[in-house]
Amino acid sequence: MTEPFLPLFSSGLDPGPSFSELLRRVDPTQLPRVDISSPGHGAAPFPITHGTTVVAIRYGGGVVMAGDRRATAGYTIANRWIEKVFRADDHSGVAIAGAAGPAVEMVRLFQVQLEHYEKVEGERLSFEGKANQLSQMVRANLPAAMQGFVVVPLFAGFDERRDRGRVFSFDATGGRYEERDYQTNGSGGIHAKNWIKSLWREGLTAGEAVDIGIRSLFAAADEDVATGGPDLVRRIFPTVAVIDTDGFRMLDDADIEARATVLLGGPERGGDEA
Amino acid sequence: MSQPFYVSPEQVMKDRADYARKGIARGRSLVALECVDGIVLVAENPSRTLYKTSEIYDRIAFAAVGKYNEFQMLKIAGVRLADLKGFQYSREDVSARGLANAYAQTLGQVFTHEMKPYEVEILVAEVGRTHADDQLFHILYDGVMMDEEGFTVLGGQAEAIAEILRRDYSETLEVGEAVRLGARVLAPEGQEPLAADALEVGFLERALPERAFRRLKGDDLVALLAG
Question: Which residue in A has a C-alpha nearest to residue B109's C-alpha?
């Protein structure tokens, strides 16, 4: 980088409001990428840290995003406290599943990308525009995904122009799909999704959606070894964000613990048929 | 072949400085005031969209007077520098001092080496957790940089306005008092303070946890001006 001078560009090379374009001009080595030139396919030659189960649920006033706290590397628990739900900007969040390293790096770039656009252009990107930006980042990760470093985020938030919560999911090719009501991702996603499906209805309150989200992660942990359940000894519980017209906020640990403790008296207690 | 006329370096620099100063003096002034609640940037600006004050980074704002297209480009360059540094290192590593240095280097370079100097005066302000940590860096068209205490004035009528502020400014002002003081000193002497529709007010609010910059406008500004 050319500090102490300002980064100035001639008109043909100006990166516009895009931070990743700016990074490509100034310091391309900083762009998140996994550059493996070996011919191997399908698997990295070492265990990759994976984040597992995340959910996004639309309710009457916005969306709830939640994630369990476990990261695995092969059969090892790589991290018990990992966070998978991140603030993207004032009114949106990203939840990550897949290879944890590139995923966290992608979120960091995405956060700066949104803020950078807002400051350069003087107004925020539309909700759709944000989803498209994330889609491009996921697509840029495709070569790495082919080597096993798949990153598949969920993007959700409150669309201020449409006055409602919205949920987008992605596939490894950058495919971007708007979901009507909820979506899950990661190894335990299918179990979480079934749980949500059985309880979701139009017009949930934020509290109800939070409880459904927490319970769906417990259900996933019940069936999937890579999803972390509630850890009562270490007091580890899912992370949960609520995004509504007032913006993005993470629920505090005490609130989640209180909810989780009540919910633990539910069906799992007697339902140990397996 | 004819020889080019010899022009002494002193004359070249003086001509460029006169040129830049004339350009800046044509525009309207801007004041920055440190106060209890943060840093207030008050500009005379009838436009609702062509801003003179902007957010650069979490606790750092930019303000400028002079030629709009030039300071707009410099503002964007500042946002780029700050976001790059924050991404490559960490958000805490972005400082007003570093940015102000980059502005001073760039303006100085252009002033000495290019045909035409920038016709701008720039302010980089950073709000601290306490009043004592507030910073105001004032950078002139030729790259001369000043570290100001309490308040500073940009633009053609700077000296006359600073004169009033030296008398009336106090660091115990609250945000409303600071905005009203700004509206008063920007008005021609002996006339009513400027009204909300002639003002642009940027505010680095000390109490905001992360991104501290916001604009005071519309009914909020009218209410503040009314006291």
Answer: A5
Catalytic residues of A: 52
B49 secondary structure, DSSP code:
S
The pLDDT of residue A36 is 56
pTM equals 0.92
The partner residue sitting opposite B80, judged by closest CB among A22, A108, A109, is: A22
CB count, 10 Å around CB of B138?
21
Give a yes or no: residue B28 inside a domain. Answer: yes
pLDDT grade for A2, boundaries at 50, 70 and 90: very low
- pLDDT for B41 equals 98
Whether A226 and A134 have beta carbons less than 8 Å apart is answered as: no
Task: Give φ, ψ of B219 to 5 degrees.
Answer: -65, -35
Nearest-10 crossing angle of helices B96-113, B68-88 = 130
Q: Count structural domains, chain B.
A: 1
pLDDT per residue over B87-124, tens digit each?
999 999 999 999 999 999 999 999 999 989 999 999 99
Q: What is the pLDDT of residues A230-242, one digit of tens each?
A: 999 999 999 999 9
**pLDDT tens by residue, A13-72:** 999 999 999 999 998 888 766 555 555 556 677 888 888 899 999 999 999 999 999 999
Indicate whether B194 belongs to any domain: yes
Query: Would the CB atoms of A7 and B80 count as touching at under 8 Å?
Result: yes
Domain of residue B200, CATH code:
3.60.20.10
- For the domain bounded by A49-269, which CATH number is listed? 3.60.20.10
Domain boundaries, chain A: 49-269
Structural domain of residue B199, as residue ranges? 9-226
Residue B133 pLDDT > 50, yes or no? yes
Question: For residue A9, what pLDDT is reported?
Answer: 92
HEC string for chain A: CCCCCCCCCCHHHCCCCCHHHHHHHHCHHHCCCCCCCCCCCCCCCCCCEEECCEEEEEECCEEEEEECCCEEECCEEEECCCCCEEEEECCEEEECCEEHHHHHHHHHHHHHHHHHHHHHHCCCCCHHHHHHHHHHHHHHCHHHHHCCCCECCEEEEEECCCCEEEEEEECCCCCEEEECCEEEECCCHHHHHHHHHHHCCCCCCHHHHHHHHHHHHHHHHHHCCCCCCCECCCCECCEEEEEECCEEEECCHHHHHHHHHHHCCCHHHCCCCC
| Within a domain: B2 | no
Model pLDDT for residues A80-128, shown as the tens digit of each residue:
999 999 999 999 999 999 999 999 999 999 999 999 999 999 999 999 9
Closest residue in chain A to residue B97, using alpha carbons only: A4
Q: Mutate which of A1, A2, A6 to disrupt the B interface (most B C-beta within 10 Å)?
A: A6
- By Cβ distance, the residue of B73, B106, B211 closest to A5 is B106
